[in-house]
């Protein structure tokens, strides 16, 4: 299952509700929600009140990416405000296994993310316990950065491990995904494609249609 997961970090927050409606009308199912705390990453984005307020208007799957230190403090809060999936960073958790368990116990999907310098090996023991592995393809913290080529190998390595073990785990990529890099990441094995600036910069509806079509075309060439 391939999904374009638009990241609202690049949305126009003055028009957030309208832009989410446009995504929903264009058949987008996954909404990527980047939460940043100014500690795990340099920047600060938004938190629970924003999620709670967009939850009232949207039926999309809320994919919450926590770029937050010690995220175990907030799992229940994010579930309460409407997350359907919570992804935490391997580098941010004191006890990663326990945090994943906490997410599952809270009744939502669990994801684990690794920064570009973190090897797949650090999380490979968790593949049976998560729904999604998020491979960061830029340094987390800001939209609009350039895709880091070295990350492609990590996507392939992960896809191989998942196939070998016969598991059903999503590989999500996040950072610098656009018309040029889509093919590389899909061919390496990614199926959940986060995109911020290339969706929201310019004509939103047109970009969603173009990128969705591109994903569909590339995915047809696989298998
Ligand atoms: C980066 C965030 C991304 C970001 C992607 O730390 O996790 O989700 O919004 O933005 P683009 O697609 O512009 O690289
Ligand atoms: Zn993200």
Could you tell me the radius of gyration in angstroms? 16 Å
**Widest sheet: strand order?**
1-8-7-6-5-4-3-2
**Integer average pLDDT:** 98
In terms of per-residue confidence, which ranges show pLDDT below 50 for 5 or more consecutive residues? Answer: none
Our estimate of the beta-strand percent is: 15-25%
Described by strand count, sense and barrel closure, the largest sheet is: 8 strands, parallel
Bound small molecules, by name, code or SMILES, are: D-xylitol-5-phosphate, zinc ion
- What is the rounded distance between the termini? 13 Å
Helix count equals 8
Q: Tell me, briefly, the overall form.
A: globular
Q: Give the proportion of residues in helices.
A: 25-40%
Labels describing this entry:
eight-stranded parallel β-sheet, alpha/beta, binds D-xylitol-5-phosphate, 34% helix, 223 residues, globular, 8 helices, binds zinc ion
């Amino acid at each position: 299952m391939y999904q374009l997961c638009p990241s609202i970090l690049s949305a126009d927050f003055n028009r957030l509700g309208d832009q989410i409606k446009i995504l929903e009308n264009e058949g987008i199912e996954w909404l990527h929600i980047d939460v940043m705390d100014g500690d795990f990453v340099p920047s600060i984005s938004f938190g629970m009140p924003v999620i709670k307020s967009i939850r009232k208007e949207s039926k999309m799957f809320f994919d919450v990416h926590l770029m937050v230190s010690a995220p175990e403090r907030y799992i229940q809060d994010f579930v309460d405000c409407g997350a359907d999936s919570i992804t935490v960073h391997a580098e941010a958790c004191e006890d990663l296994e326990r945090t994943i368990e906490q997410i599952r116990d809270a009744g939502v999907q669990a994801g684990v993310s690794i920064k570009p310098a973190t090897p797949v090996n650090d999380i490979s023991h968790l593949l049976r316990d998560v729904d999604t592995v998020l491979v960061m393809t830029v340094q987390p913290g800001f939209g609009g950065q350039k895709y880091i080529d070295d990350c492609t190998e990590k996507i392939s390595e992960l896809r191989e491990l998942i196939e070998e073990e016969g598991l059903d785990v999503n590989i999500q990529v996040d950072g610098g995904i656009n018309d040029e890099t889509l093919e590389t990441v899909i061919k390496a094995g990614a199926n959940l494609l986060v995109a911020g600036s290339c969706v929201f910069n310019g004509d939103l509806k047109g970009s969603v249609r173009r990128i969705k079509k591109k994903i569909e075309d590339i995915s047809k060439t696989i298998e």
